[in-house]
Each structure stands twice: as C-alpha cells, then as structure tokens.
UniProtKB/TrEMBL annotation:
It catalyses: beta-D-fructose 1,6-bisphosphate + H2O = beta-D-fructose 6-phosphate + phosphate. It comes from Paraconexibacter antarcticus. Belongs to the FBPase class 2 family. Gene3D superfamilies: 3.40.190.90, Fructose-1,6-Bisphosphatase, subunit A, domain 1. GO terms for molecular function: fructose 1,6-bisphosphate 1-phosphatase activity. The lineage of its organism: Bacteria, Bacillati, Actinomycetota, Thermoleophilia, Solirubrobacterales. Keywords: Carbohydrate metabolism, Hydrolase, Manganese, Metal-binding. This is Fructose-1,6-bisphosphatase. InterPro entries: FBPase_class-2/SBPase. Pathway: Carbohydrate biosynthesis; gluconeogenesis.
Amino acid sequence: MTENPSLGRPDRNIALELVRTTEAAALAAARLIGMGDKIAADQAAVDAMRIVLDTVAMDGVVVIGEGEKDEAPMLYNGEQIGDGTGLAVDIAVDPLEGTTLTAKGMPSALSVIALAPRGAMFDPGPCVYMTKLAGAGDIADLLDLDRPIGETLGLVADRRDVDIRDLTVVVLDRPRHDEGIAAIREAGARIRLIADGDVSAALLAASPRSPVDLLWGVGGTPEGVISAAALKSMGGAIVTRLYPRDEAERQAAVEYGRTHADYDLDRQMTQDDLVAGDDCFFSATGVTDGDVLQGVRYQGRRSATTESLVMRSRSGTTRRIVATHNREKLREYNGER
Ligand code: VTB
Ligand code: MG
Ligand code: MG
C-alpha cells in the first residue's frame, strides 16, 4: 500500500546542507570585493564551494555550471559531485552570481545553488540567454511574453488595485533592452536598472511587499533555471523563452531541438518547465549587501557573518539563516578565509 515511505513524514532537507556550500563560496569571494578582479573572485567562490560540496551525501551531477558565456572558471557540466551515496540529483550552481558586482563592490552579488532529482532540470543547450518575466504568485496568470509589456503592466496594476505608475520593473541595463525599457516607461511604470544579478532581481520581484513588482528582460539561461528553483519554493512565478544571440545560435538551437523534445525556441517555459516536479532545493548567500540578502560582514580577524536564504519547494519552507563564522577556528582546519 505504501508507495513512498517518506510521504507524509518529515525527511531530510538537503538545502540545510547546501547552505554550507554557498556560505563557503560567499566567504571566499567576499575577500575580493572591490578588488577589481572578477576572475579571481569567481575562482575563489568556485574553489570554496567545490570543497564543501564533496561533503554532501548525494550522487550529484552538475547540469548547470554557469561560466561558459563569461569564460569563467566553473564546476564543469557533467562533473560528479557529492560523496556518491544517496539521492541521485541534478545540481545547478552559480558560485558567484555577480562577478563584476563583486569586483566593483556593487550591491546584490550572491552565491547560489539549486538541486533537484536527476533529470528534473531544463538543459540550457546552446542558448546562453532567455527572455524572462517574473513576479509574485498573485500575478502568475498574467505573465505572458507574447503580450506587449505595457499591456501586462496595466493588468498587474488592475489586479493589485494600484496605478501603473506605482509599479516598478527591474531590468538589466543592456542596449538589447532599449525598446522594452521605452515601452515600460511609455506605459507609465517605473524602472530599476541593474548592472548584473538577475537571480537576485527575480527573488526581489517575487517577494510580496518588496519595492519591485516585475523582473523583465533577457538574462542568462543558467540564471533562469536557478531562479525557477527558488520561485517554486517561495510561491513566485516566471515565464521564459530561449533567446538566441545570432543566426548561428538559432541554427544550433533548432538542431538541438531535434534530439531534445522540450527544447523549443517558440515555447514559453514556466518555473515548472525549468525545474520539474515538486522537490527542489535552493540556497543563496549574500556576498555584497543587497535588498534580498545582506553581504558578508567581517568582525576583524575573529569572525564573519553571512546571511542566506534556504528553501525547499515541497514544503514551501523558506529560511533566512544568519551565521557567525569563527574565522580563527576555520583558519585552523581550513586554511585562510
Ligand atoms: C544576467 C545576470 C548575470 O549575466 O543573467 C546576465 O544575472 C546576462 O548576460 O549576473 P550579459 O551580462 O551578457 O548581459 C550576468 O550579468 C553574469 O552572469
Ligand atoms: Mg558564475
Ligand atoms: Mg551568473
């Protein structure tokens, strides 16, 4: 009779172990805030996350190791992670989401990781970009990339019983968004332009009571999948569509679609298409200070604090974990941090 012995019973929440990996990456990257070297900051985050990941009891495979587009060091796609026992899982990492933000000491750099049962995560394939529209769960049914953004803003304003000019849309500051930005302004909504970091922006847009209502624009496909894992847990919504950069990438995507049934340039994909099923896990730790998470704070050589968001989609539990790290003890058994 009992198909799944864990159903209805509390079981392991692996996100509570993942938080150690994003904390380690954040602590390592934060040493390099404002130092002007995004490669070094990224490398520090990758190395630190990699070491702690191997302590997690799981049979993991990296399916999204962001870094290709920016030629950053990465936890390689296909790399085996964990101690090889237990759950067979897909892992998506961005050890430092916001390498330039970190190098320049700008807000909202995060370390992030997402995990889901094997096969659950969308494979980005050849497209490094996707168009994204994200917000809180109360407007999930209004998110449609085929409707002009100005009209969607009108519907969101009606739904929330506010004026369009009360709405704020967060947009990556990129020339490719010029038309969209003009359309949003034309509709009367306000815009918050950000230099990088659309995972953090998706979390902000999806939080009820945040000053931002929507995330709109073209960002990284890996970041889209990672955001989806978070939004599934916190009750937010995202719709996305692959965005080939040029004709060659479009051709490669069409070719890829012949052997991968769910790979379709025309399809709008929601959080449930990007991360299937109901049991994904997410952890993010702030590197630089931001609206969603406080960054790493050092208290001299003795200690440092981190703030993390830790979530699981099945239970919908979101935890904010503030940790105090004893840097002296860590130095003793881990080397300098
Ligand atoms: C976004 C942003 C990232 O890449 O996904 C962006 O969230 C999109 O690519 O922080 P471009 O920078 O090429 O526009 C990042 O900026 C870097 O991973
Ligand atoms: Mg990265
Ligand atoms: Mg990134």
